[in-house]
Amino acid sequence: MCDMLELVQLGKNVRYIRVNILETTISEFSNLTGISRDVICRIEDLRLGKNSKACPSVSTILKLCKSLNVDIGEIMGNDISSNTTVLSDLRGVVSNGN
């Protein structure tokens, strides 16, 4: 489905969103997205580039994108930390109760 660089970037972006933008715990992020804590941990661990077997399913990635109101290309393609438009929209996810 995706190459290792995309998986690493996905892991980095999810971790950045959870920790730096939404400032949530893994449990809170799990409740927000509807994705289990274990799967979120595996996705975030992808940022280390070590476990390509933990590739999340397409449906999980789409569920994540829908819950955060982020396009799949934005969360997998590039470093999301420099995308001010997406970051601004993400800050509204928690304040609006999603």
Keywords, separated by commas or semicolons:
98 residues, mainly alpha, 6 helices, 64% helix
Describe the structure.
The radius of gyration is 12 Å and the shape is globular. Helix 1 (4-21) crosses helix 3 (37-45). It has helices at 4-21, 26-33, 37-45, 58-68, 72-76, 84-95. The chain is mainly α. The protein contains six helices and no strands.
Write the layout of secondary structure elements.
Layout: H1 4-21, H2 26-33, H3 37-45, H4 58-68, H5 72-76, H6 84-95
Strand content: under 5%
Number of E strands = 0
Give the biggest beta sheet: none
Shape: globular
Give the mean pLDDT.
86
Write the H/E string, N to C. Answer: HHHHHH
Count up the helices. 6
Gap between N and C termini: 28 Å
> What Rg, in angstroms, do the CA atoms define?
12 Å
Structural class: mainly alpha
Helical amount among residues, as a percent range?
A: 55-70%
**Uncertain runs:** none
Brief characterization of the structure:
With 98 residues, the chain is mainly α.
